[in-house]
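I wish you would study the pair of lines that follows with an eye to the fold:

===
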Amino acid sequence: MGKYCAYSNRGFGNGVVVVTTSENAARLKGLEAVTNGFDSQPRPYFATQIEGKGVGLIANRTIRRGEQIFVQTPAFLAQKDFLTNPEDEEEQERVLDLAVQKLPAPQRRAFMRQMGDDVRDILMMNTFQVDLGGEYGEGHHLGSFPEASKLNHDCRPKLVSPLARPNDVGANRAPSLVFHISANLTHHTRAVRDISPGEELTISYVDTLAPYHERQHRLQSSLGFECFCAQCSLDLAGREDSDETLLAIAELERELSDFSSKRASPALAEELLELYEGEGLQSKMGGAYTLAALSYALAGKEKEARQYATLAAEATEWESGFGSEDAVAMRELARDPRGHWSWAKRKAR
């Protein structure tokens, strides 16, 4: 279709096809091939039909907090403009059908088993947003990770996965999990809390810090479904209490982020952490631990500053990827609290 072409690489992961421009194809050259981690060991889950949700993933053993669930490369990448603003729909369909035929047979079957009536439908319904760089959004792509696409939504997820999000929806897609997509296009997913056998593995398709009505609006307008997770199924009083807690969290974060504030203190940081834990926001703890680490460092309390900086670095790496600036900064604080710019600044006042 004019400037768009289909490229394939059978040696990257389990094989990948990309529909994009020549400029973006050049950006993809030289990416390190990664073996999909779940192919080399027994998977801690099984796929099954879940009432009202379609296919989902269920833990088949105890999964511990921090355990990596997925290390997965994409099967298909398509430039977003190509999918959403086609110049010629018939030609678009032809290019997509041609592209998927370039996948190795096992990867092609995994891709086609996803929800959707045709290749375009599958890409629009099951992808994560991936940015290859460049100007004016030219690097925006939709990436299909067939195994990860089976993870259903929960507003209080069990998994995390940084730097990417479901197509056109809010932040982390991981209630009991967090995920991120690394620079080599590998989808990493970890458990943010212990998960028992029989529990569903979930991520969040929207910002878990958003209030109830905003979460519902995003899900309905972008993905066409209403959420009935445990958090959204609370009665009216419960939902209002939850929304008030989210407002309180936002206010505490503003206060703790103001390093000139006289009210900010380690006690206030501990209150923030309690609210996060009580609200089931384990997939978003990186920022809260960071504020706690800085609060203790500002107060000149070395042991606690090290403890929370270590937790902050760990959670931030899970949520945003290894090597992220915030994680590196927290590793530095954990290593040498007394040498950090924040050390005892509030204590000295």
